[in-house]
């Protein structure tokens, strides 16, 4: 019977801990996220959605802007998952690589701009909690995470673009030989 009682206490304790975490989020990070989301949406409205879209179209011009600037702007302004819609400005051959870059950036941006992917904030906060308890600055890890994210999305964009080009070439050759 003791084992059953301990199991029941553990089970309820799990939900009590979840409730405490939830209350901490409601009184801590959620108000910040709401203000950040409102701020970013206000900027997009003030600048104009058409201007933001024109800027995105120009960003597809070269490999650096296509796989660094465009994904960063998309994730920052439109947040996850709407950021993938920026892919509509790209030629078909670049869309898979843009998606790969954008989806790879929704995590690294979280430390500096939590509004961009609030669902991942819990993962980031879980990682940084250990660092915080050890007395490390969270600003430094957020900046490093962001910079490494930029490098990774650029590499992933290039690699995926190369793979996509090869696959499209093979498909074209296979269709031509029929």
Q: Tell me the overall shape.
A: extended
Structural class: mainly alpha
Low-confidence stretches: none
Helix-strand pattern, N to C?
Answer: HHHHHHH
- Rounded Rg: 21 Å
Largest sheet: none
Helix run count: 7
The count of β-strands is 0
**Helix content range:** over 70%
Cα end-to-end separation: 72 Å
What is the mean predicted local confidence, pLDDT?
Answer: 85
Summed up, the domain count is 2
Q: Strand-residue fraction?
A: under 5%
Structure description:
- The longest helix is centred in the C-terminal third of the chain and has 39 residues, at 138-176.
- The protein folds into 2 domains: 1-47; 48-177, no CATH class.
- The chain is built from 7 helices and no strands.
- The protein is 77% helix and 0% strand.
- The mean pLDDT is 85.
- It is extended and about 75 Å long.
Secondary structure topology:
Layout: H1 2-27, H2 29-47, H3 49-58, H4 63-78, H5 95-105, H6 118-133, H7 138-176
Helix pairs in contact: 2-3, 4-5, 4-7, 5-7
InterPro entries: PTS_IID_sorb
Organism: Tepidimicrobium xylanilyticum
Transmembrane segments: 28-47, 67-87, 141-163
Describe the structure concisely for a colleague.
The protein is mainly alpha-helical and 178 residues long. It has two domains: 1-47; 48-177, no CATH class.
Keywords:
PTS system, glucitol/sorbitol-specific IIC component; PTS_IID_sorb; 178 residues; transmembrane helix; 77% helix; transmembrane
